[in-house]
Amino acid sequence: MTDEHPALVLRGLAKQFDGKVAVAGVDLDVPAGSFYGLLGPNGAGKTTTLSMAVGLLRPDAGGARVLGHDVWADPVRAKQLLGVMPDGVRLFDRLSGAELLAYHGLLRGMDPAVVDQRAAELLDVLALGDAGRTLVVDYSAGMKKKIGLACALLHGPRLLVLDEPFEAVDPVSAALIRDILHRYVVGGGTVIFSSHVMEVVQRLCSHVAILAQGTIKRVGTLDEVRGDRSLEDVFVEVVGGRTATGEELAWLSR
Amino acid sequence: MALPVTSSGGREGGGTAGQVTSPDGPAVERVRPVSARHFVRLKLRVMGNSFRGQGWRVAMFAGSVIAGLWFAGTGFFLLAAPGLADEPTYALMTAAFGGGLLVLGWLLLPLVFFGVDETLDPARFALLPLSRRTLVTGLFAAALVSVPAVAALIAAGGLVLASGLLGGAAAALVAAVGVVAGLLLCVAASRAMTSAFATMLRSRRVRDLAAVLLAVLAALLGPLQIVALAAVRQADWDRLTGVARIVGWTPFGAPWTVGVDVAEGRAWAVPVKLLVTALTIGALLWWWSRSLESAMVGAAGGGPAKARSGPTRAGTGPAGARSGAVGQLFPWAVGWARRDRFGALVARECRYWWRDARRRANLITIAVVGIFVPVMVNFGGASFSTGDGTELAAPNSSPMLVSLSMVVVGALASVTLANQFGFDGSAYAANVVAGVSGRLELLARMAAFSVYVLPMLGVVAVLLGMVLGRPTWLGVMAGSLVASYGAGLAISAFVSVLGAYSLPETSNPFAMNSGAGVAKSFLALLSMLGAAAASVPMVVAAALLGDAWLWLAPPLGLAYGLGAALLGAYLAGDVLDRRTPELLTAITPRR
After folding, report:
1. Which B residues in the span 415-454 are in contact with A, Cβ-Cβ below 8 Å?
2. Which positions are tagged coiled coil (chain A) (predicted)?
């Protein structure tokens, strides 16, 4: 790949909702070939940031570039290189898994024969083949995550943007998703995903950014960010959570 | 039977685990009783919060208040009319039939048109230790605080006035009691009905089916009304008074007729009728509380996924095209489409028009309305007002009138797309991420919808031509239909891009965001008027050109409709390209 450009560059992304600041100027450089974890507590602005990065939400200020292509000025090129799995967004769930994959593939302008072949393979690998013609709306939460990932992967994007890929996923499916993502990065792809599961981030990621209150608090390689402590300690310290309760809530123990 | 989720205070846990909240536990502060007042305040607070910083919601609420007042005023004077005109003979009939219609409306309308105001969703209370009685009375009280309830109360006030004028203060007082009881009956009936349906229809497939059946019923309401009106014209008043008397003893009429009874000197009937009402309300509330419980349990856990029909069916379709994923996506009706972006969009939309209950219900409405509107317009009052029931053979129709009715049908059909993106909800994100161009998106949606609608419109034209006995008018009808349909598609394209709103994603197929009903009808009305206005040339031509128009209409109408639709997709597509993310935000339901 001609990867002189970073896979994803965010510059000064900012967004307010009804006067409430959700994201207050985020700068981020995701190097090509990295496995990037975007960490943050609930409500930190992870979803908002990623939505703006992929063109689902128009930022109030700032911009995003995917492998050198501006998401807002040159959306077609940028979106070709992108695979996205948004969180809290429905799929076209009145389709069966195979139909959904075919839809995504054709929408990406792929050759029908290739779509057929890759869809069969993905359904097989993700253990969704048994679902047959069950509609996605009737899938379990974990199956929905997996079919969402399959849709994002189908056209072979150079950059995968995943919002909470491990939420509501059972350990077996999570391991499967981890393996697939790992293989994807080894093969030259770039992944950025949001999570608040430290264990997963620690195991997978080469780079980490910690987002809280709409700004990046820490950023760098995994080792740079955590130093000689555990990632969780750093995270709690940065986010400013409290670690102990003393007298308050005394009535909980009787 | 499952245990009730909401067992009050100390009942769960029994005596074994002393740590669990027990009413007499020393460390637990006194549990203060929850009254209906709390639910009412909660509802008002939720409503108030939803207005915050949302000018258009306030505007919509104001709109619904105005509509409610208009309805209330009209109803008031209609129901008060016998008293104002001093016509005691009609008093009983007005009270029994007017009140009965009110109850019927509360029963059926929420199911089909407006949906239930789910400001207070029962499922949200599932985890709170509230007894069933507290919950039902609370939710019931909260349900009374709504625009329709207040409007109905004002309207029914007309009965109080009528009774007062005819029978003095005592009659008015009794009527007032009856009206309040009647309102309670209405609200209880609508709640019990929707709740029972919502639980009965937990399974998605059954629910889809029921929604469709209800849509048919709703669409038939109009025609049935006409038949009823025709019947009324023929019936004699004495018989009707007899019917009214009987209705007055059923729950439909009992609460509304007590005032008239006093005025007409049948005071003995009052306690009996009030008892009938009270028993009915009690039964309805009991029924509601039963279904509430299962609604709350059901909301807690989604059902397990089960395979629809086993493993992939291979090679059953034409030429074995179904085997691959792509083959499965395309229904046979769009088998002609190329396997590319456009084809995929069309195929997906086609699947959705059938599989999404909301959309399917719309299609059915088009079919039913498409038949009845033209029949009504073209047979005018003629056949019904003569009353002797002989005539469908001499309709007072003309090419112009036929064109006009066809314009209405075409416009009505196209208006279904006025919130086409709202049907998708946040799923539309997939198209945004894939970078689908606006023109392609809109064209594909028009094409897919037309796959269903154009054949239906064709059937409408042929049927009407046969019924009217004027096969030569077929061309005029088809031309007007296609012209108005195409123009309507163009206008709906703009409305759907600029005026999109979100539809709720709940398990209750009857749920509606508060106020959305008004927005829906307003936007639909706007695009319908636009489509009808754009098709005026077809009607004018039909009026002016005479026989030549019979032959000119089909090609000109087709060209006009097709041109309008293409132009609409072309221009609205540019608008869509510029505001794709904003559209996505607009149709994503807030949580």
Report:
1. 424-427, 429-436
2. none
